[in-house]
Amino acid sequence: MPxxxxxxxxxxxxxxDEMLTRAEALIGVWLRRDVHWPAMAEDLAPIDIxxxxxxxxxxxxxxxxxEEYARGTRWGTVIAPPTFLYSVDSTIVAPGLPGIQWIxxxxxxxxxxxxxxxxxxxxxxxxxxxxxxSGGHAxxxxxxxxxxxxxxxxxxxxxxAESDVLRVPxxxxxxxxxxxxxxxxxxxxxxxxxxxEIVRKAYADEQRRGADPRYWEDVTVGDELTPLPxxxxxxxDIVAFYVGRRNTYPPLKLAFAERERHPANVYxxxxxxxxxxxxxxxxxxxxAHEIGMPGPYDQGWMRANWMGxxxxxxxxxxxxxxxxxxxxxxxxxxxxxxxxxxxxxxxxVEGGEHLVDLSCWGETQRGERNTAATATVRxxxxxxxxxxxxxxx
Length: 393
Description:
Layout: H1 17-24, E1 30-31, H2 46-57, H3 67-71, E2 101-111, E3 122-135, E4 138-151, E5 157-168, H4 181-186, H5 193-204, E6 224-230, H6 235-244, H7 252-261, E7 267-268, E8 275-276, H8 285-291, H9 301-315, E9 320-328, E10 338-350, E11 353-364, E12 369-378
Antiparallel strand pairs: 1-3, 2-5, 2-9, 3-4, 4-5, 6-10, 7-8, 9-12, 10-11, 11-12
Helix pairs in contact: 2-6
């Protein structure tokens, strides 16, 4: 049972039937995405993709950043990593529950063509379903699932995403998030020099297939992907993730204006009296605890990015990620190290495409899986080739 809030603190909002009725009335309605302006009204510049790849993903593949290199690939220009469209529209479709914390649960991406420098991507979003649930860390929560469709300047469907958002009352509510006391008491893992050296060496020896094609014929079910470390997670890593986005939470004067538009979406620090966006829990210990988290934690899309990085390192520059599904299972806290791993689970020819299926996951320094993912990748085949548009020729 959640404990009562300390004296002098106000209770946070609970999920009410009235809230659910209002939210459920929005199912199927195409929503305004004003919060993503102007990301959806500007052509993509090289820096947009490079910044996302470098800072939000931690991926220095020249295909995402080097025009000269990219011109020599089958794409003929810089293209974006498979999770880049988070920076156009976040995929968070969670209307109608004011004052209730949202926690990203995962996304099911389907890509139809690459995103290129010079594209202008717009997005349409709608809520497609809601599920009432209870769990080990919350007596009452709601999962809101949204659909986002991304179109280019030619009105071609580029990608489709379905994302799950967990709506969980904050700790000071009667049904807020609980159950992380032991993890909070453990504190951050203290790494030895030997442990850090293992990570350093893995980063230095990172294997990227790059310009060497990985042909479909050469892949065998059971092949393992080279593990990719991410972390140990620091506040700098989280801030860098925000730096890489084309849109983020407003600061200073703009933050005050945002709070006036959305007065329920605010956290007032009991110790300082300062109002902030609840997302500050990603970097602020006090706010993280108020939400119910053991401590500052990653922005969940970071782990989706990491799964994409693992897959593209393995697949090479001639490949195209057709599908990427990512589900988060436990919080990834500051101080945690995630090893991204994967294995080939299947291969097939479908609709003229030579496809390989992968199962991927993230494993922490404690041996816990914090992420589960699957991917379907189109690989080049020795029996055919692809033109620069990515279509079979």
